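Worked problem 6 (solution included).
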Amino acid sequence: MRQSAAVLCNDKMSLRALEATLEKAGIELMTCSSRQQALELVVAGRCSTLIVDFDLPGAEEVISMAALLPPSQKPALLAVASRAWPGTGQAFQSGASRILYRPLDPEQVKDALEATKKLAPKHRRKSARYEMKTLVYLELEGSTLPAVSIDIGEHGLALQATEPVPMSSNLHFRCTLPGTDVTLQGHADVIWASDQGRAGLFFSKLAPAARKHLKQWLHKRSAHSKEKDGVRDLLPPVDAHVEFAASE
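Solution. The predicted structure is:
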């Protein structure tokens, strides 16, 4: 299967350079007209590389959101910037693995692609997820949003809320693992959400004890259900209408 790169960039010279280099590398270039489109391609697993021009508003948010995905699902993240750009550290903090400096040199792009390819997992496997029905409470600004979980895995959970879940990071949540008296609580990042109230959360902060309890619970479920019972993916369902929050 041919690899592809989602590119969020309006600079024509940079786009021409990227197109030529990617073509030689056998990578399809998919030009994105918006941050939402870029993130939709990433979350749907349709690109192996994400290239974002950091001169664009909200570029940091795009890289940050893509960086939240588990390693097995995360594409290579490249940032495009001018050499005089002062935000190099900011780009790396966002999750970018390499920075491509303008004017883009074919060898520079080629080296970056090869370097990120070596770091990528040899086999992209989906995390096992198991059905779980329990109440989940999301702490929003000034209110608590109740939801019912759909499934859960080591890295996150999917849920159904009574109203759309806002795209946000470091969102506090709590729930009880079914069949136990263990309260699982921590912080999570909303990596996809639908206007019907369905959402996917990626665990950003879990206490060691909470992570241990979760692993033990998942191990027991795995032993009972074997391979195929309730296996899910962290990505949104095919029929979900994914919406991403715009920067302020």
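Discussion: The radius of gyration is 19 Å.
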